[in-house]
Amino acid sequence: MARRALGLVAALLVGIGTWQLGHGLWIHAKARLAQHLLQRAWARTLAGERAVKPWPWADTWPVARLTAPEHGIDLIVLAGASGRTLAFGPGHLDGSAVPGALGTVIVTGHRDTHFAFLQQLRAGDRLVVEAPGRTPTVFRVTETTVVDARSVAVVNDDGASALVLVTCYPFDAITAGGPLRYVVAAERVDDSR
To answer: C-alpha distances in angstroms, 6 versus 3, 11, 59, 84, 132?
Structure first.
């Protein structure tokens, strides 16, 4: 009897482990597949279509392309920053400057998928934002910092041209959420540099 109970417990643990592994792999697979579909929607956006949905039931669409040339990163940024949107790609925070326009552009993303690369960014690294109908804007990282989201807010400066990337922190946290945010600040640079 004890042997049978031990076998059932072992089978249950293997089942739970397989479920957890499958769930973790699905999150990353979904994020990668979404970026492929988003690249196609982005191409249609650049061709002049507006609010191109990457799949029929999508409630978001591409608004910009974010690249980090030194790190081999090429991401499509989506409209909005809801949890549902961030599951598929980084999101442009409503109320912040429109990508490519004057002001502070704020983009958020998940630390364990699309914005995992933020931990490798250093002062001086280039970030490029491309928006439909606009010349790509080059930014240089000026600062990376950890803040408590309960007591700090990003201020939109309409007179400057800045890019702020935000994700949860720490990068290796076991549970999602928490109050800490990793913030990358970048300033627009002259394209001739």
So the answer is: 5, 9, 48, 40, 61
Q: CA 178, CA 96: separation in Å to the nearest integer? A: 23
Q: pLDDT category, 26, cuts 50, 70, 90?
A: confident
CA 183-62-36 angle, to 5 degrees, is 95
What is the pLDDT confidence band of residue 191, given thresholds at 50, 70 and 90?
low
Options 3.90.76.10, 2.40.260.10, 2.40.110.10, 3.40.50.1260; CATH for 2-188 is 2.40.260.10
Whole-structure pTM value = 0.82
Stretch (H or E) spanning 16: helix 2-46
Distance between CA atoms of 80 and 95, rounded to whole angstroms? Answer: 10
